[in-house]
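Bug #77: duplicate submission created two jobs. Keeping one. Sequence:
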Amino acid sequence: MKHIANTIKSNIFNFKMLSLFALAGLMFSCEDNVLPEANSIEDLTPPSAMFSASESNGDWQTFDFSNQSVSSTTYAWTFGDGSTSTSKDPSHTYAVEGIYNVTLTSSDANGLTSSFSSDVEVVEPLVPVILLPEILEASFEDGSLDGTGDGRDSWRTDLGGVIQITSSPVRTGSQAAKFPSAGDRAGYQELEVSPNQDYVLEYYYTMKTSGTGHMTVSVLAGGGHSDPSAAVAATIETFEGTDQTSSNDYVKVELPFNSGNNTTVSIYMFNAGVESRVDDVSLRLP
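Kept job's structure:
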C-alpha cells in the first residue's frame, strides 16, 4: 500500500511539473509571436511626417528645414545630395545649383514610421547690373569731349552762365573749372544711374582767401532742371564747401548718396561770394 501511495504522489508531482512546463512554453510562444495583451487597443496617434523649407537669410545655398511632424520622437533626413541628418530642425548647405528631393522619415516610440518628401530648388540669384556712368569732361580739360570740347561743354546749363576755365591753380592736368565771385555761373550734368543704389560723388575744390562765401555741389533727383529754386528742392545730397585755408591747395570732398527710385540724377555746381574752382569730378560705388 505504501508503494502505491508513493507512486500516486510521484505522478501528481510529474503532472504539476508538466503543467508548469506547458504554461512556460505557452508564455514563450506568445512572446515570440508578439501577441497583444488582453484588452490592448490600437495606437490612435501614429507618427505623421511633414516639413517646410526656406532659404537661409543671406545665403542662397543654405536651406533651413522646419519639422512639422506629429507624434514623432526620432527623425531621419536625406537631403538629395547624399547628405543626411538626425536633427529635428536641421539646416543644410548645397554645393551647387539644382533640384534636390528631400525626405524626412519620422518615428515614434512604438517603432512606427512615416515619410514625407518634397523638392527644394537651389538657384544662385542673378547679380544686378549696376550702372556706373562716365562723367564727361570730369577734369575740365581742353579737347576732352570727343576731341573737340574746351573742357566745359558738358557742363552747360540754363541754371546759370557757363562756367569759366582756369589754368592755375589746377589739381591735375592743365585746366580746372572757375566760378567767379559774382555767383552767376553754374555747372550741370545729368547721369544715368541704377535705382536704389548707393554712390559716392568725389570732387576737389579750392576758394580764394579774401571774401566770404561757399562752393556748393549737389546731387539732384531726375534731370531736365532749368529753374534754380526747383533744382534746390530736388536735392538728394549736397555739400557746401567753405574751406578758405589756401587758394592753391584743393580740398577733397566725398559726397555719398542713394539714387532712390531715380534712373537719372544730376550734378549741380554753383558758388556765392568768393571765387572758387573745382577739378577732378568722379563717381564711384561705395
